[in-house]
Amino acid sequence: MNRNNDKISSFQLGMLISITVVGVGILTIPRTLTEEVGPDGWIVLVFTVFLVLGVGRILTTLAGKFSNQNIVEYSNSLVGKFLGTLINVGLCIYLVIFAAFELRIFGEITKAYLLFNTPIEILMITLLLTASYFARSGIESIARMAQMIFPFIIIFAFIITIPVLSELEFSNLLPVFRTPIYKIIQVIPVTFFSFVGMEMIIVCANFVVDPQNIKKNIDKSILMVAAIYMFILIITVTRFGIIETTHIIWPSLELFKTIDLPGAFIENIQIFVIAVWIITVFMTLVPLYFGASLTLSRIFKSKEQNYLVLPLIPLVYFMALIPENIAQLGDYSDRFAYYLGTFYMLILPSTLLLITYIKKKARRNKGV
Amino acid sequence: MYKKILLCIMSILLMTGCWDKIEIEKRAFVAIVGIDKYEEDKKNIIETEEKNLDQIKNRYVVTVSSPNTGLLAQKGEGDPKYVYSTVGDNLEEVLDELETRTGRTLNFRHTQAIVLGEELAKDETLVRESLDNIERSPGVGRKIYLMVTKGKAQDVVNAKIKDELGTGLFIREIMRRKKITPKIPDADLGYVLRSLHESRAAITPRMIVSEDEIKVAGSAVFKNFKKIGWLGEQETEKMMFMLNKLNGGILNTTIDNIRIPLQVTDSKTKMKVYEKNGQIYTSFDIKVEAELSQHLFEVRNQPLDDGYLKRVEKIASKELDIGIETLYKKIQKEFQADLVQSGEYLRKYEPNIWKRVEKDWNEIFPKTQVKVNSEIIIRRIGDTQ
Amino acid sequence: MSFFDDLFKPKEEKVKVPIKEDYQKNLDTIKEILKNCDDVIYREFQPMKDKKMNFAVVYAEGISNKDLLQEYVLKSLMLLSSDLLKEPRLMKEKLYEEIKKQSISVADIKEIDDMNEAIDSILCGDTVLIVDKWDKFFVIASKGWEFRSISEPSTETVIRGSREGFVETLRINTALIRRRIRDPKFKIKQMQIGERSKTDIAILYIEGIVNKDILKEVEKRLYEIKIDAILESGYIEQLIEDEWKSPFPQIQNTQRPDVVSAALFEGRIAMIIDNTPVALLIPATIVALLQSPEDYNERFLIASALRILRFISIVFALFLPSLYIAITSYHPGMLPTDLALYVAGSRMNVPFPAFIETFIMEASLELLREAGVRLPGAIGSTIGIVGGLVLGQAAVQAGIVSPLIVIVVALTAMAAYTTPNYSFAIAFRMLRFILMILAGIFGLYGIILGMIVILIHLCNLKSFGVPYLSPFVATETTWKDFKDVFIRVPLQFMKKRPEFLHRKNNDRLKNPKSAIEEDTEDE
What are the chain C neighbours of B20 within 8 Å (beta carbons)? Predict the structure, then answer.
């Protein structure tokens, strides 16, 4: 019987990537986009999707080249041991910071909307412990959970927004195409960072049993995430208008404050929505956490990933406590996404891919 | 090892947990909040502090009422509602003070209305403070109503209502009927906040209170975050026509000395703002479907006559046109407030014009021309001819 | 049988005790081994005229068919065949042949040369015939004992469907299934487990449909069992399941032959254990545990509606009490205003917090249920009435609990009982309490946390290599399986067997010709 705990399908990988990406981006994307370009946010989003599809291609091609190896292993062989280790330790730290960031956002939102007096430390540590329990279960369980949760989240999101539909004013999307093109290009990076989490492709791709389908499934999952973003963006902007969308910190959550379900058993669905969102952010946190522990274990050349989950708990926890308030959190996360995000999502994969090609060519030349 | 750590943490949690736990019966569900401006010499405010020791300058008087839930579950007795009132420098402070007064945790999730007293509504700073407080707090929904009352908000909260457990629940029942009569403006907190954000002007329902009765009718006009005037009941109805928010109501018209009420069943308004010969026009195309629900006894054959109905339609729509035009001019002249959000319309549909007029829209708006073109269609005439 | 023997060889550590030629010694050996076993009857006789040859039958009374023994063994040996046996010229070897061929008119008879086997046979209910001056025994299959007649099982009752339930006798149970599957590919492999109890266990499957990997795994795990006695199928279940720490049953149990047959046709493996009417089905998935046999007997619209109801009710059973706690103690804003005010009013003057209140009521419900199970039928239902109505009513009137909690508890109980599988339902009932504690600490967040942990556990869980949450989480895209999850599509559209078992032959509905072809291909 196959009892190895490290086989996932490319479909599951796609789901995993989708849910990792969606987690926090869904809350901020309407505000950040509308702040920059007003009603033309959706155009920026469309442009960004093409860019992200390209990045997805780079990542999947790289993963496809080394379908049996982890990033740690092949980066070492590509750029040398020293540089490779540096990159990989960096990747691990990046994932830890990313996880900490998600954790903090979770804490802030839960405290703001759900449990007002509970200390944020308690909220964070309970979720972190649950996440570490899950990260120890291995990639197979995580992928299964993602596969199960993600469709549920989508269906839930669509159903729950039905009551809003009657109050949308699509004129809020007007005027279109008023933003100059250079401005749109300027803003693309902002949207682009709503797609961070894609680098999990190179971390997890070697578990996939059918590598030939990865590209297709990743494309699908990127489009799915883009569709969700688009849906939320349009609903939020058409419901609140430009000015209010930029005025509210979490417009996607505020959306559900405007919904009354008269006569239903649950009248105020905002709390409910946040509860479901917690599952999403949990499923964002876990793959990142798992990725960090996996990278670490490969750096130490240890076979078992789950021993390294525990030492990461305090690291993630204290990292998450660093920002003083939500303003600083946003500040840090922007900077973090700009530098490290760009590096690990774009620069590193394309460089590695380039080196692969060059080496291949060199080898062929030598052979000839 | 792992399990031991988990066990430790779980036990810590179990021992210290429940920070947010407040049993439902220990909460006071505030049904209505009345906010008034604090006035020194008024005697009717119950004060607990001694004047001399009171260092803080009181600015607000807040009155809240929560229903006596025991009555609802047939368990308790006493007054149908509890009313508390106190004063303070800012809203948060007052609410904290109120909590110590009631001995319960105030919960605003089920609040139905926030009533501003007339004096407070006239004070820009206080209104802005209150609005920000309301908007910022996660516990307040956007479907509640922000109202302005003639006189004191405290009186509204205190009003003795028959049948219902307090003013708040009563207001909710009234506002559910806003579909029936346009005299109650369809303007919830979400609309007010948005309209104030976008065009710095909004209308809110007006509340009138007498001895043992409260009534929501007409509306208050806000501009630049303060109340600058009232709209009467008829005017509110016309206002709803302009905002395309009308779903019912009666249009009265007179033909051949017969007073005919037309019951509106459906109405659609299309607003357009355009520029012609350097002049900005606002036009309203209104399509109303109505029912003739009353004529005069023993007047035969008139309502079943198409020509007659056409005549009624024409007269009625003309009356409507004039009414709306008059109101528009009143808004321009008296309030200079862009209540119909024609500026927003320009921003959305005519960005080029908007760019030009954006800066001094406040001056331009009063000079815009209005064109109303309404069409009333009588669909049904009832059982008799 | 050869497979069976191969199977047992490595385990057979007992030394073979050869049978001697001496009649008296043999008999003494048996008597020595079965000393103080007073249910064993020894009947010695000398049918030959010269009375030189000693015969004896040994059998255990109560588990062997005495009539058969008297009519077809003793009678034929002593009376009918006495002519035959008169011939002294018959050689030894010849004699036994003659006895076997002509004298004993019993269907199943075999020769053995091992004393231990003879003892086992006696204890199984067979009769051992000892013949003088021969180093072998005859074993006459004479198993037969009183058994409960086939009746409707007390659990898993259906409105429409077969009323037959398993009984405690293995052979009858396999016969009940054989009657439903008249297919040569339907196999019944038997083995014995238990050093002392020597319980018969039959592994049932249909060759060509079953996943051989799972079958091998089942057999392997059964071999690894080293236990002195198997009294019920629960022993086997616990010894071979994947994760003993889990509250969820990873093996389905049933008392209905039609459920077993349906599972076999799906390609699953059944296990029938002697002395218990409860059969095991492997592998189990969460969907299988929520199915009722009636789902397939009713029209699809009704069956689908009932199944959705069952899914909803399991959510209710798990979350309703904890949601009550979370809403009343943490998030009253979730309720509609009128309801919130009513709840607040009805809880007025209730001395306990919602958590304690719910806990008391839920615990008393479990008490009631346990008491109802232990008491005989009529009293059991009385307890239900007394406990449910009187206690609840009194508690509410005394003002100790709010009337709402009584409704919540009653709803939860009803919802829990809609689950067809008892072991599965009980797992949810236990988890409910954990969720209640979490809801008491963190409100809705606690419930979500608990739900996540349960989901993680379910994701980790496998039943014999098959993910427990199939088809929600299968690696392959098994969308086809969703035909039979929340809704049950009409039978016409269920052309394939469920995919999650990864077998070769997947066709359910097709023309019979190709079925035979494919089956042979599969060999």
Answer: 330, 443
Percent of chain B exceeding pLDDT 70 equals: 89
ipTM of the complex: 0.91
Taking CA–CA distances from A257, the nearest residue in chain B reads B141
Query: B18: nearest CA in chain A?
Result: A118
Interchain CB contact of B20 with A (< 8 Å): yes
* Alpha-carbon distance values, C61 to C144, C197, C274 (Å): 10, 18, 19
**Domain parsing of chain C, residue ranges:** 15-140, 170-295, 299-467
Q: Which residues of C touch B32 (CB under 8 A)?
A: none
pLDDT in tens, chain A (368 residues): 334 567 888 888 899 999 998 877 788 888 888 888 888 888 888 888 998 999 888 888 888 888 778 888 888 888 888 888 888 898 899 899 889 988 998 999 898 888 888 888 888 988 998 999 898 888 888 988 998 888 888 888 888 888 888 888 888 887 777 778 888 888 888 788 788 888 888 888 888 888 888 888 899 999 999 999 999 899 988 888 888 888 888 888 888 887 777 666 777 788 888 888 999 999 999 999 999 998 888 888 877 777 888 888 898 999 888 888 888 888 888 888 778 888 888 888 888 888 888 888 888 887 65
B178 touches chain A (CB under 8 A): no
- Residue A13 tokens read as 């990988």
Q: Is residue B15 in some structural domain?
A: no
Which regions in chain C score pLDDT beneath 50?
Answer: 1-12, 511-523
**Does one domain contain both B187 and B322?**
no
Shortest alpha-carbon distance between residue C457 and chain A (Å): 9
Task: Print the SS3 string covering B128-195.
Answer: HHHHHHHHHCCCCCCCCEEEEECCCHHHHHHCCCCCCCCHHHHHHHHHHHHHCCCCCCCCCHHHHHHH
Chains sharing 3 or more CB pairs under 8 A with chain A: B, C
A175 to B347: CB separation less than 8 angstroms, yes or no: yes
Nearest Cα residue to B142 out of C152, A249, A257, C347? A257
> Do B85 and B172 belong together in one domain?
yes
Assigned token pair, C452: 């996540």
The angle that helices A41-65 and A181-192 make with each other, rounded to 10 degrees, is 50
B13 touches chain A (CB under 8 A): yes
Domain coverage including residue B60: 24-231
Domains held by chain B: number:
2
Between the CA of residue A322 and those of A90, A97, A100, A123, what are the distances in Å? 19, 11, 9, 16
Nearest-CB residue to B6 (from A112, A129, A254) = A129
Q: In what order do the strands lie in the sheet with C137-140?
A: C40-45, C55-60, C127-131, C137-140, C109-112
Closest CA–CA distance from residue C280 to any residue of chain B (Å): 33
Nearest to B73 by CA among C346, C321, A6, A348: C346
Q: Report the percentage of chain B scoring pLDDT > 90.
A: 0
Question: From C460, which residue of chain A is nearest by alpha-carbon distance?
Answer: A141
Q: Which residue among B197, B349, B351 places its CB closest to the CB of A244? A: B197
| The one-letter amino acid at C522 | D
Encode pLDDT of C132-162 as tens digits.
777 788 888 888 888 888 888 888 888 888 8
Same domain, B181 and B305: no
Q: Residues B159, B291: one domain?
A: no
C-chain CB neighbours of B22 within 8 Å are: 329-330
Of residues B131, B142, B42, B53, the one with CA closest to residue B91: B131
Instruction: Please answer yes or no on whether A113 and B138 come within 8 Å at the CB atom.
Output: yes
> Does A258 contact B142 at a Cβ distance shorter than 8 Å?
yes
* Residue B141 with chain A: CB contacts under 8 Å: 257-258, 260, 268
CATH number among 3.50.50.60, 3.80.10.10, 2.40.50.140, 1.20.1740.10, domain A10-350: 1.20.1740.10
Q: Does B165 share its domain with B290?
A: no
